[in-house]
Amino acid sequence: MNRSVILIIKFSFITLFISSVNCKRLLALNYPDSLVSVKYFDKSVNFLKDNILDSAEIYKNKSLEIFHQNNDLNSWTNVYRKFGQIYRDDLNDLTKSIENYGHPIIYKFRDPIKDDEWSNIAWSTFFAGYTCNQKGDLKKSLEFYQKTKTIFVDILNNENDTITHYVYVPMGNIYTRFGDYEKAKYYLKKAEEESLNAGKNNWAAQARQDYAVIYQSMSSHEEAINLLNEALAWEGISKIEIYFIKSLLSESYIELRHLGEALKTNKEAHKSLIFSIKNNLYTNAERYLPSIYENYASIYQLNGELSLAKENLLKALELSENYYRTTNRRELGKINNRIATVLLEDKEIDSAIIYVQKALNAVLPSLPFDKIHELPDPEFIYAENTILEALTIKANIYEQLANQNQDHNYLNNAVQCYELTFIVDRKLMETYEYVSSNIEIIKEARGRYGRMIMNLIKLYELTGDQNNLTRAHELGEQSKSLLIRESIQNIDAVAISGIPNNIIEKLSVYKNEIVTLEQLRFEMATNNADKHESNVSSLNDRLFSLYERKKALLNQIEKEYPTYYKLKYKTNVATLKKTNATLKFNQSLIEYFIHDTTAFIFLISPKYENIKIKKISWNPELSFIAQSIKEDIYRSENQAYIRKASTLYKQLIEPISEFIQDADHLIIVPDGVLWNVPFDALLTEVIPEQENYNFKSLPYLIRDKKISYAFSATLLQDMKKPIEEIDEKKIFSFSPSFHEIGDENESYAYQERNMLGPLKYNIPEAKAISKIIGGLNISDKKATIEEFLSAWKNGRILHIATHAKANLKEPNLSYIAFSNTIDTLETPYKLYVNQLYNQTTPLEMVVLSACETGTGPVWKGEGMISIARAFAFSGTRSIITTLWNINDEATKDIMVNFYSNLKKGDSKDEALQLAKLDYINSDNTRIAKAHPKYWAAFTAIGNMGQVEFGLSFYENIYIISAGGIMGLLIGWFLWAYFQKKLQHRS
To answer: pLDDT, tens digit, for every residue of 380-438?
Structure first.
């Protein structure tokens, strides 16, 4: 069985002593009719074992009624537990077993009072989860395990090695199956630590194996191998655990193409498993034999021995069907998918589609397995990776059939399969709390989006139907910046769905506590990490608990306020018609989508009724050029920059040049590495290599076009929406200063705050801007985080001239720096990105006049994970940001000109273009300082409309003064007039 994504829960070896204890001995005997109740109970059990169900239920209910009347919750619970055990172990009726095991937690006649009552219900709930797991109902299983965990940990305060082993390990495995890796890591790590502390190395080895599976699922196979080899070195590891470890090792060696090592390790695993089966060392150990044959199949497949691969997979399928005695199991679905993949590789397409349909039927029994071209009803699709795999394989089959038969109907079928996979993606993402888990889904989905776009473009080429091009563009939209879109939708949903303030405030408290703990953990981890190891572990526990409570509250909100759920998760994207309606005649929207060796350029313009599209070749060299050009600019690697700037222009702009001749405003929606490209600084001509370049005269694209950026066309529409009551809000500019702080003890707080050097021009910059546009300037020591967050709530435009730092490894811990004069870590001066994500007040414009605010790691589908992106999460309509470390003096000149241009009524992209050109062309700018490193870092994102300013402070003074002078003149004139008239009368 392929366990690169999951590992089957390893609990069938448990003797389950709690369930096998004679329940008769546990029944209470301290009230008059207790003997009668026991007699009824014995009869019910005997009838049930003989499969005489009606009589069993009659006597069961009689005993339950007496226990209830006598307020005996323990005995009442034990009746259901015993019935759950018999239905599962003797009658093999898992549905009835789950009903009985789950009854005490769902329908208890009163809440437990004593610890033993809680414990008894907890174990019954645990067995309900365990049996759901056996049945393959992972979602229901997880619900029961979570209830068990709540009782033991939150109510009984009992998080020992037994609880972590029996409850946390299966929970971790289920979260791994669902792809929620952060939660899985937490539970499995806790289980491993508790088991090692208790000296139970076999239990620890089980948790370690499942922990390694997470890294396999994330394709980090070297890390998985290291984890597994560490576990092999632990003392006292049993033969069956050696099997599990070596089987997983073989899988990782297979993925790394170390086939010799993989075969050797799998044979050793096989030997250990056979030994365990023959010597009856592990209950139902034969259930794991299929995984051995799956590993052999993978090795043969990679060696090109496809017939042997099929032979081993069919053997694995036969063993699994014999063990489970049903075809409707997730495990069987996985094997059928594997068989279909091998058949597809061997060009046995007709057979492949049969097996992939069997895989779908295994997890969607309502879908007929013999109607091979029938697809699942979207209503019945749920969060299950096996469905995702099967639909993706089926889409690949249809693509091959289309190529063989030149039949575009097969391409339509492939498109339908991919559309269904996106429903699974969405349902999986709705279950996740950690952003990293959602990012994994988004990354994996990108390849399917690319395949679907390719298919739609082929359909367009075959049929000439423009709708296919439109749909292709919408798909590109659907795949971009999904998390930003969801955040903006969430803010709107909260505002109009009637959620009470006390619930919103409670959610806000959870979010803020999480942010505080994440920041504290980061500070500890980066300062004497070993010293703070125990504290970091404690913080992780507190954080996880907060995440759980936050998720539970969100689930409650989504359930009780359906309008909120509908608005938050709506998937509508901008249509061609709506996008065109938002563009002016001199604007064009250029949207890029990179897939494997092809990049698509979509162009939308009011000039054209339909979307224009160009396909260009894409390769690792171009990707490297796009990734590295900003570094070449910043480091003044001039020859590299010149060469790359003209190459990227030729690849990215020239293919559509005929369509944008009349468009002097370009709105660019980058994809992937293209977020690193400062399009302003691309060169429209090839420049011969030379020793010195005249940077004042190079043919920059900015000379011809005003350029702005958007996360997507859909988000651009959102960012063009007006903000209610924005006119009542204020303009703020922030310019903290960074002083040298002395301390005789040289504490960490002081050392930390002295890391940022002084800025000479940021305060003059902010003050000059305030003179131009008005508003409140907050400078020096007053420019604190507290003041900034207060300004955010009351502001419409924020200008921030300060230090900032991008964290490429932990982008949520990138920060903007404010006044550093307060000398304790408890009063922070770094505003981290994760705190920005919690803000929900939309701003008209934010100008981040600071280093690296627009840079960070690039995540597939989500783009650049930067400080600027965090402002977009709050619904900010336009953002001016930077791609690298900026020069203090040049920044002041460009920003002052930018605001002067805005004040004149220019649009934001035009104001920025003119400010940059003024800087380049100015007589005060030397040739060396006309280099793009000084001006090209500034990029404008979002709504580029004009800004309405009131009168600045100085304009008000001027008007008041002019009015005063005019009044004096009029007064003098009137006085002189009446004086002359009086003299005339005299």
So the answer is: 998 888 999 999 999 999 999 999 888 889 999 999 999 999 999 888 887 766 666 67
Sequence-ordered alpha helix ranges (H) in 5-156: 17-20, 23-26, 34-49, 53-69, 73-89, 94-107, 115-135, 138-149
Question: How far is Cα of residue 946 from the mean position of the Cα atoms in its chain?
Answer: 34
Torsion, CA 430, CA 444, CA 178, CA 517, rounded to 10? -70
Q: What CA–CA distance (Å, rounded) separates 18 from 20?
A: 6
Q: Who's near 902: CB < 8 A, 6+ residues apart?
A: 773, 908, 911, 946, 947, 949
| Cα distance between residue 254 and residue 680, in whole Å | 46
Contact indicator for 721, 587 with CB cutoff of 8 Å: no
Distances (CA, A) of 976 to 343, 965, 971: 107, 16, 9
Helices 330-345, 306-324: axis angle to 10 degrees equals 160
Where helices occur in 795-907 by DSSP H, the ranges are 833-836, 867-873, 888-904
* CA–CA separation, 76 and 38 (whole Å): 11
Exposed/middle/buried for 953, CB within 10 Å: 0-12, 13-18, 19+? middle
Sign of CA dihedral 425, 479, 336, 11: negative
For 711, residues 6+ apart whose C-beta sits below 8 A from its C-beta are 480, 481, 484, 669, 863, 869, 872, 941
∠ CA 191-196-198, nearest 5°, is: 95
Left, alpha or beta for 284 (phi > 0: left; psi -120 to 50: alpha)? Answer: left
How much is the CA Rg of the chain, to the nearest whole Å? 34
Q: Report helix angle 115-135 to 169-178, nearest 10.
A: 40
621: number of Cβ within 10 Å: 9
The pLDDT tens digits of the residues spanning 651-708 come to: 999 999 999 999 999 999 999 999 999 999 999 999 998 888 999 999 999 999 999 9
List the structure tokens of 729.
């809000």
254 with 262: CB under 8 angstroms? yes
d(CA 492, CA 875): 9
E strands of 780-935, at which residues?
795-801, 804-805, 815-817, 830-832, 845-849, 858-859, 863-864, 878-882
Q: What gap in Å lies between CA 472 and CA 468, rounded to an integer?
A: 6
- Cα 335 to Cα 342: distance, rounded to the nearest angstrom: 11
Average pLDDT, the chain: 86
User: 330 φ, ψ to 5°?
Assistant: -55, -40
Q: Which residue has the tokens 């399917």?
A: 448
Cα–Cα distance list, 905 to 418, 773, 898, 899 (Å)? 47, 12, 11, 10
Do the Cβ atoms of 432 and 438 come closer than 8 Å?
yes
Taking the C-alpha atoms of residue 314 and residue 814, their distance in angstroms, rounded to an integer, is: 51
Torsional class of 361: left (φ above 0), alpha (ψ -120 to 50), beta (otherwise): alpha
| Two structure tokens written together for 950 | 């009131």
Which band of pLDDT confidence, cut at 50, 70 and 90, is reported for residue 971?
low
Give the C-alpha distances (Å, rounded to integers) separating 306 from 233, 392, 399, 786.
36, 21, 21, 65
Q: Are strands 612-617 and 598-604 parallel, antiparallel or unpaired?
A: antiparallel
pLDDT recorded at residue 744:
46
In angstroms, the CA 445 to CA 422 distance is: 8
> Which CA distances in Å does 665 have to 585, 668, 943?
9, 10, 12
